[in-house]
Structures are given as structure tokens and as C-alpha cells.
Amino acid sequence: MKDYYSILGVSRDASPEEIKRAFRRLARKYHPDLNHGNKESEEKFKELNEAYSCLSDPERRANYDRYGTAEGPAGNGYGFETTFTDIFEDIFEGFFGSFGFKKNRPSKGADLRYDLTITLEEAAFGVEKTIKFPRWEQCQTCNGSGIKPGTEPIVCPSCGGSGHIRYNQGFFSVSKTCLKCGGKGKIIKDPCTDCSGAGKIRVDRELSIKIPPGVDTGSKLKISGEGEIGEFGGPHGDLYIFINVKEHDIFKREGQNLYCSAPVSFVKAVFGGEIEVPTLDGKEKIEIPAGTPSGRVFKIKGKGLPRVGSSHRGDQIVTVYIEVPKKLTERQRELLEEFAQVSGEEIKKSSRGLKDKLKDIFSM
User: Fold this and answer.
1) Phi, psi of 178 (to 5 degrees)
2) Are 7 and 47 in contact (CB under 8 A)?
């Protein structure tokens, strides 16, 4: 009695999936098309198929485990010729593809990508955008058939309408896609004039999309069913929106928080006071304590950006710097010089110009 488990290299308690994987692996190795003229590989392949045809069927496997034969005590063989094709095509459908066999099954269309640039304000509060992009859609003139309205396709004379041609190779046969009809089984004699027989046309698709609050550069939104048209009645692919947020003139973003700088006058830095700073929601006042140094950081709660799907916002971080006046009046200069003198600081006094000297002469 042949030991089918040893032939497939699995244990007697192997699961159906383990048996299937073992058969797939060994059948690829000993497939006659990869071992032309090798009688040993051909016999090994037959043996593998015999073992798999028994162990893949629960009833026949039970008979084999109990009686040593797939058909039970009264059996007279396992019907190799009748089971081979179904088993082989089930396990090696992908393998047959290397020979050009192709089934016209519905398949999902290709996905599309759209790059969208938005402002920081739009990223913070969300926005609705109308985008336009090209994609393939079903031809409305022929309803995707590729046939000129009022005409009919003819049955492919090469494959008889099956879409593939079967070739005998040794003890088994291989199916290949019919080259004449491309696997469709029919030939279009009068193609649709709008799509030239393709069944689809290139159109500009216009779509309104909602960008949720909180997105950032690198965020990706998926719009289901807005990609390319599928094949053989399959669904459309998906559209992916890739977000890019433009740099802002004032704010720098780090996660949910915003950062900016704000000037403070020398007087307010010394005596204290209020300043106004910009936020995404408008102007906001900050209380400046007396003696505030340049570089001090203030936090405005809840003026940053939210996470996607949340209403909670981050903070705005404001760094103040002392604004040094570039031009001083004569009186301002005198007061500052007096302040420096009282403070014991030496300063470089600016030389008075000719205009100032003339003023002194004529005022005498």
C-alpha cells in the first residue's frame, strides 16, 4: 500500500490546508512542463496527484486511514483520470497563468492618487474642496460593450467562444488564452465609434470632498469607488487624497501646537502691560508682567489644531522679544542717556549733526 502521507511529506494528522500547501509546493517542483523529458518527474507528479486526490477528500481520506484504500473495502481505485483536471486547476490556477491562461473574472479597477494642497487655516477648521481628475469610465454609447449600437459581435472562430484554447501535453492538458479574441470568446466586427471598441472612455471627473479638521502634510484620505473602472464588470478602484499643508507666514506647526513670535516694546517689558497677538481665530491679548525678558514663552490654551476626529485643540506657544526702536526723538534720547547715567552704564553718545548745531547758533 502506498503511504500517501509520506508522498506529500505531511503527518497523518495534517490539516486540509497543510495537505494543500504540501501538494502545491511539490507539484510545482515536479511539474512536467518544468522538467521536459524527465520520466521520473512525470511519475512523481502522477504519484503526488494520486495522494492529493485521496487526502483532499474527507470521505476518501477516512476510508484510506481505516482500510488502506480511498474507496473503502469494496473499492477498486480512486478514479485518477476523472479527478485530475479539477484538482489541478484548483491548486494551480496561478501557475497556469504563466502559460497564458486567463479567466475573464470581474476585477477591481486601479486606485488613483490626487495631491491636494491646503492652507493651515483650512487644515485647522476643515474645508470642502472641489477637485477634478481624469479617469476611465464606462462608455455610455455602448454601455461598456465596445460594440457599435445596433450590431452584434461574432463568436471567435478559434476558441469557439470559450476564450481559451486547450493543448494536450503528455498525460494532461493546458489551457491558454485565445490570442484572436484576447480571452473574451467574441470578436467585435463593428466597434463603438466613441470608445473605439474599448468599452471605456477617458473623462474629467469632478468631485466635492470634505477635508476634516486636523489633517497635516502626509495625511491620506480614501474615497471608495472613485478610482478607475473595473474589468469585466468589476467595481471601481479607490481614490486616495494626499494632503500637503502650505507653510504659514506667522505660525509654525508641531503636531497639534502652533508656535509664533511677538514683539514687546521696551517700556512694556519694563513696566508690564498687554499686547495683542494673532491666532487662527483672530486677535488674542496677552498680559505681559513687569520685567519680562526677551525670549519669555507664553501659552494660549486651545488655540492650536485638533486631532482628526476630535474637537480638542492644542495650544499656541508665543515667544516674545524686546522690540528696539530704530529712531528716537531728541527727548527720548536724552531720557535714555540720563537713565544710562543713573544706572552707571557707559554709552557711546552719537555726534550731533550740522543741522542740530545750526539750530543751537540761531537760537542764541
Assistant:
1) -70, 125
2) yes
- Rounded to 5 degrees, what angle do the CA atoms 195, 200, 206 make? 115
Given a contact cutoff of 8 angstroms between Cβ atoms, the answer to whether 187 and 153 are in contact is yes
Helix, coil or strand: residue 152 = coil
What type of residue is 305?
Answer: L
pTM over 0.85: no
Mention every residue, 6+ apart, whose C-beta is less than 8 A from residue 117.
244, 245, 246
- Of 76, 75, 18, 29, nearest to 52 by C-alpha is 18
Q: What gap in Å lies between CA 317 and CA 214, rounded to an integer?
A: 18
Contact residues for 199 (Cβ-Cβ < 8 A; gap 6+): 138, 139, 142, 144, 145, 146, 192
DSSP letter (8 states) at residue 204: E
If you ran DSSP here, which 8-state letter would residue 200 be given? E
Per-residue model confidence as pLDDT tens for the chain (364 residues): 689 999 999 998 899 889 988 988 888 888 776 777 788 888 888 898 888 888 988 888 888 888 777 665 544 443 333 334 444 444 444 444 444 444 567 889 999 999 999 999 999 999 999 999 999 999 999 999 899 999 999 999 988 888 888 776 555 567 788 888 888 888 999 999 999 998 999 999 999 999 999 999 999 999 999 999 998 889 999 999 999 999 999 999 999 999 999 999 989 999 999 999 999 999 999 999 999 999 999 999 999 999 999 999 999 999 999 998 888 899 988 888 888 888 888 877 665 554 555 555 555 5
- 3-class DSSP assignment, residue 36: coil
Half-sphere exposure of 207 (CA within 13 A, CB side): 20
What is the C-alpha separation between 31 and 53, in angstroms, rounded?
Answer: 16
Where b means 16+ CB within 10 Å and e means fewer, 161-182 reads eebbbeeeeeebebbbbbeebe
- Give the Cα separation of 164 and 104 in Å (integer): 10
